[in-house]
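Entry type: protein chain
Record version: 2
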Amino acid sequence: MHLYNDRYPAAPGATLLPPNATLADYAQVQQRLHLQRFVIVTPSTYGTDNRCLLDGLRESNGNARGVAVIAADISDAELEQMNKAGVRGIRFNLSYGGASLDDLEPLAHRVNELGWHVQVVAPGTQLLDLEPRLAELPARLVIDHMGHVPQPEGIDAAAFATINRLLAGDRTWVKLSGPYIRSKWARRITRTWVRWPRHW
């Protein structure tokens, strides 16, 4: 999940600018879904500013882990501080900009030493070109938002085959999140969610 707080400025050029979303808000979701543990991910809104993430980890009472967005020149000391705070991965967001593919392998090597994973969010079509590099990453790989598999091709898309090949390598996971992003039914799903009974 993402946290948003207008105490922290959006990164220059950020296009995702939602209203504040706090841990207290998420606690209501947890209560409804009977969840206790969770993962906080720095959104594209903040670029490489992870203060909102780190605040959330401190306030989570040990129930959360984090996925940060980091710059290539981050120091070893900063990485160690994040590790102690509960960060366990880094995110490369190639869908909304701000990430350089030149940094992929160098940063993967560095965070692998901490036991972290590399999370990649990219258009499904871009995964085809990235497949050889992703398959050789030293760190474990998480493909974000179900790989943004193009619709309506779905399981017949070349991107879906790419994801399956990466999964066969036994060091790759797919995050089941954001189905509405590529869904042709997103608006209908949203309206249905609003109409569901409060006790559901």
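Comment: The chain has a mean pLDDT of 90.
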